Structures are given as structure tokens and as C-alpha cells.
Amino acid sequence: MNWNINRFIPLRKVLKSMQNGIESKITSIKFYNCGYCMNDLKRMYKEIKKHKKVIFRARVMLIDHKTYGKILVDTGYSHRIYENGLTSKLYHLINPTYYTKKDHILYQLRKDGIKPGDLSMIILTHLHPDHIGGLHDIKNTLIIMSDKCRKKITGARYKELVFPNQIGKCMENQIMSVSVNNKSPLKGFKGKDLFGDGSVWLMELEGHAYGQIGIYIPEKKLFYVADAVWGTDFLKYRLRMIPRLIQNDYMAYVQTVKKLTALKGVSIISAHGEEVYNDAQ
């Protein structure tokens, strides 16, 4: 019998795309930096004794899903961060922010050949301005957030940093809120299997912001934790008083950090840290 190795290439591709017995559903994952702020680590963490200014980039995640298309997670900063009156001035006073038109998520997506209409949905981890800044510029796209998070669109307290000019009333009919309280693949974390196929999990990450969620991709063993921690290098550090006051629930923040620290075999990527993700991993 004459064997033709090319006959087995499709099977080999399928086998390569299988992880834990499940065919791969994620085509690619990419991160974009959409503006940044600067802060002094000594003023943030008790264990840091010397002044050191650090850039905290506003990271946006793009998931290309074989079934559900291009999924954007958060939208980074936009020019609107400068247009909220006194609130913006106070925000910049404690959190100096830097943004140009080239930082906008849509500008960067277009450079990659992706139009706004190519996005199937946007997942918001929480409602702070460095995560929802570009939302106004992406029209008629499904917006997914936790049910807790949705409650903060109106009536948020000042310290919760939800700016009214970031989400318009016209967007209300685009929002789908979900309950994130089921058992998840990650020990100690509640979650929601977004599509029911195990490919994308919304994970509860209480502490920093009310209703904050992260994104877990099991086949990549990738956990995007948004602002649950401002960088994996800081998991071991304790917050000083002012950063504590910014947290929605400091004790919940501490518990979330402990659970993240205990995770094994998972790549943790934060919204503002220096972690590097290699899509080939």
C-alpha cells in the first residue's frame, strides 16, 4: 500500500488544536496599549521605600473566536478622559494620564485591518475610564458586563470613578448583563461559561471595582485579571492608604489577590502590568 502523508495533515491539524480533549476554539489573542497613566510606586505600596515613577498602560484584549468572531475586552482611554469637568481634573491630579489619537483602540485595530463592524461584541471588565473610554466610538455592538457592574452605570458614588460621559443612554439597549456566580475551572473563583462551550469564562474578581470580572481562556491557560492587581509583580505588596480608599472593597481585594497568588499553571495578565503574552504559548 502506498501511503501519502498529506492524507493525514488535516488529522494532524485537528490533533494539534486539541487541548484537554477539546478542539481549539480560539484562533488568536492580541493585546493593545491604549494610553497610559503614571504613578509613584512608593505612594502605592508599603514595601517600596524609594520613589519610582512607573507607566501603567491601559491594556485592551482582542480574542478571535472561531465561532463568535472578534471579541474586544475593554476599550482603553479616549479623549473623553479630559472632558468630564472637575472630575477629570481631580482624576488627573492623582492619576496623571497620557493619551493621543494614535492610542485609540479603533486606530490600532484599523492598522491591523479590523473595522468596528468586524467586532461581534465588547466585554467590559468594569466601568473605570481607562477601560470604557473608547466605547462611545464603537456603534451598534453588543456590550457584555456583569449584572453587578450594570447597576453602577447610574448612581455610582464619586470614589467609584464611573464618568457619566463615557457611557451614553443610547447604549443601554446594546448591553447584556450576566450573572457571574457559577462554579468555574479555577479553584476559589466563581465564573460564567459565556458561550456554554468552555472556551471563554467570565470570572468574578471583587475588590477593585463593584462587579469587576476577568476573562479566563482554558485552552490557552490565560487569565486576564483586569485591575484585580495592577501588575503581577505587585501581588506580594500591600497597598497604602490612598490606593486602599480607591478600592471598592479592600478586604475583597486582599482575598482576590490571595487567590490569584495561589493559582498554578495559569498565565496571569493584568490590565496595567508589564506581563508579556505570547500567542504561540
From TrEMBL:
A UniProt-annotated Pfam family: Lactamase_B
Recorded family membership: Belongs to the metallo-beta-lactamase superfamily.
Required co-factors: Zn(2+)
MF-aspect GO terms: hydrolase activity; metal ion binding
Protein's recorded name: MBL fold metallo-hydrolase
Domain Metallo-beta-lactamase as annotated: residue spans: 57-272
Source taxonomy: Bacteria, Bacillati, Bacillota, Clostridia, Lachnospirales
Keywords from the named record: Hydrolase, Metal-binding, Zinc
Originating organism: Lacrimispora amygdalina
